[in-house]
Design a protein that fits this description.
Strand 5 and strand 6 form a beta hairpin. The chain is of the alpha+beta class. It starts with a helix and ends with a strand. 35% of the residues lie in helices and 26% in strands. The longest helix is centred in the N-terminal third of the chain and has 39 residues. The protein is rod-shaped, with a radius of gyration of 27 Å. Bound molecules: 2-acetamido-2-deoxy-beta-D-glucopyranose and calcium ion.
């Protein structure tokens, strides 16, 4: 009699321990997948992760100035590529998309009265100095007489950076917003 109770008691303990083990395992799995969600993709639609950033590539032709304003209107900014890795990752993406459109980005020359200019990445009202110049050969070639204060990935030379006038119809292009 007493022996049976002891057996039942031991059985109950074993079942309880197994349940705890299963529960703990499941809890850990949920925790890990939540963590992966956070690190793998935190971009919210329609923005997509490309390299380290969340971008929206828009295939609608506008001027460089309009591109700045349109990203701001969306609560975003014209894409900044502070590192060469970011720029080259996007360049490859555009080459693969192969739309034939140029794409404006958020680099801007804030002083065309000095040689080469003073190029900055502009984001939410703040400006960051360029730390690299990945323009195509002979670029940037704007000056105070023919300013080219905007820049885009130029489709005609496999998406290398060119400086271009900010409001010139023949060079309207798509644009890339970042969030
Ligand atoms: C950014 O560039 C400007 C002009 O070349 C320079 O005067 C300024 O010190 C630079 N700022 C930083 C934070 O490096
Ligand atoms: Ca140019």
């Amino acid at each position: 009699m007493c022996y049976t109770y002891v057996l039942l008691f031991i059985n109950a303990i074993v079942v309880a321990l197994m349940a705890m083990y299963v529960y703990e395992n499941e809890r850990r799995k949920v925790e890990i997948s939540a963590k992966q969600d956070r690190t793998v993709d935190t971009c919210t639609s329609p923005y997509e992760r490309i390299g380290d950033g969340c971008y929206l590539i828009i295939n609608y032709k506008v001027s460089g100035d309009a591109a700045f304003a349109l990203c701001t209107e969306r609560g975003a900014y014209l894409a900044n590529f502070e590192t060469l890795e970011e720029a080259m990752t996007m360049k490859l993406k555009l080459q693969r998309m192969n739309t034939g459109l140029h794409y404006y980005v958020g680099g801007r020359n804030i002083n065309h009265y000095i040689p080469i200019g003073d190029w900055r990445w502009i984001k939410n009202g703040k400006m960051h100095n360029f730390t690299y110049y990945a323009f195509d050969a002979g670029q940037p070639n704007g000056n105070s007489k023919l300013p080219q204060d905007c820049m885009f990935f130029y489709a005609a030379v496999s998406y290398k950076f060119h400086d271009v006038p900010c409001d010139f119809k023949d060079l309207f292009g798509g644009y890339i917003c970042e969030q």
